[in-house]
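Consider the following assembly input.
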Amino acid sequence: MTAPFDPGRGYGLNPAVALRPEPFGALAYHFGNRRLSFLKAPELVELVRGLASHRCVSDALAAVPEGRRDAYLRALASLAAADMIVPQQARSEVA
Amino acid sequence: MTITRGQTAPAERVPALVEQFKGGLAAPICLTWEWTYACNLSCRHCLSSSGRRDPGELTTAEMRLVIDELRAMQVFYVNVGGGEPTVRPDFWELLDYAVANQVGVKFSTNGLRLDAERARRLAATDYLDVQVSLDGASREVNDAVRGDGSYAMALRAMENLAEAGFPNFKISVVMTRHNVPQLDDFAALADRFGAQLRITRLRPSGRGADVWSELHPTEAQQREIYSWLTDRGDQVLTGDSFFHLNALGGSPLPGLNLCGAGRVVCLIDPVGDVYACPFAIHDAFKAGTVRAPGGFAQVWRSAPLFAELRTETSGGACRSCSEYSVCQGGCMAAKFFTGLPLDGPDPECVKGHGASALAAVGGAPPQAGTDHSHRGREVPLGMPSVRVPAKLCDSSPLAGTA
C-alpha cells in the first residue's frame, strides 16, 4: 500500500492523474483506480501542479501564506492517500 | 466512479462542493450516452422506451467526432447505455476508439453479447467497466419485468465475466416493489461473482410511466432501502439516486445528494439530442443536439435550458419543510412524469407530501418524448410473456444478423 504522507519528501502529480480546470479549482481523475477528487481552491491547484519542482512538500508550502499552510498540508495528505500525488522517488522507480 | 471528498481547503473561503456544483461544471462528471434505441428486450419500465432502432441514429463517423470532443473537454469517462448498446454493429470498434482516446467507458448491458470469448477480451481492456442489468435476484421476479429468458441471459454474462477474471464489474438493479425483499440476495449474488452491487431508483420515465404506480416501492420499503444503504455505506453504488430518502434520518447517504441535471449530469441520446438527464427524455428537457455547429461542448456550455438549471431554485412548496436542505425537493424527472410541479415535492416524498400532491394532479401527466417500443410486444407483469410481432422486422433488431 501507499507509504504514509511525509512532507519532508518530494511529491508530484501521479502520471496516471489528469487535472481538469473547474470554476472552483480542479477535478482530478485517476485513470488507474477511476477515482475522482476535487481540488477545492485555485491556489491548491497551482500548488499541486508545481509540487514536483520542489525538493520537498514543506518547501512547496513555503510560498503559501502561513494561515493556510495547515489546510493545504491536510489537502495534500488526502491527495497522497488517494494516490493522486506520489512520492517523487517512487515515481521514478515506476518509470 | 468513486468520489473522494477528503480535500479540504480552508472552510471559511470555500463554499461546500455541492453548492459550487449547482453553478455547473466545465464539463459533465456523469455523462450518459445512449448508443442505440434498439433492444432485444422490452422491459416494462424502460426509461427510454427502447426497442426499435431509430433510423436517425448517429453514424460511426459522428460517434467518433463526439468521442474526440469528449476527449478535448476532458470528460474522463461515459456511461454508455441504450437500448442494448452491444446491438450496434460498430459497438466494439467504438468502445476501443473511446478507450484509446482516454474516454473511459462503463457500459450497461442485458448480457446479450457477453459470451466467454468477449468477456475475456473485455477483462483485458483498461478504462473499461461493465454493468449488467438485473431486476430480480430470482428468475420469476426478474423475468416478470424484463421478459422471459432475461434472467438466464444476465446470469450467463456474469458467469462469463467472473470466469474471465473481470474484476468488480457492476450488477445494476432498479428497485421495485417486488425486489426490495431481495436486497440481501442481490448482495450475495454480487459477492458470488466478485462484482459490485448498484441499486437505483425506479423513475416514471419512458415506459416506466405505465408501470410506476404498481411497481414503485411502498413507504415501508423506502425506509427499508434507506436503512439497508445506510448500513452498507459506500459498498453499494446508487448513482446518487436515492437522495430524496435523506429526509428519513440523521446520516445522509454517500454521494453528492443533489439533482445533477444539467449541472454535473446530462444525456446524449442515440440521435444526438442532448437532454438534462437520462430520465428526462422530453422536449421540455432537451438542450440541443451534438449535430449542431459547436457540437456537444456548445450545448453543455451555452444551452439556455442548462443555464436555467444552474441557477438557484426557489424550493417552491418545499421551502418551508424542515427536510428541504437534505432532500432538495427530490427528482425532477419523477415529478415531471407524474404531473407534479417541478418546485414541489417528489412523488415519493418520505414526508407524505408527494402522495397528497399526486392526488391533486388534474389531467394526464406529460408523455415521454420518443417511443421506440417494439410494437405488439410486451412483458405482462407476473405472467409468461407472449410475443406477437406486428411485423417480422419488429421481432428483433438482430433479425437476420445473427
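Chain B touches chain A through 28 residues (CB under 8 Å). Ask yourself how this observation constrains the way the partners meet.
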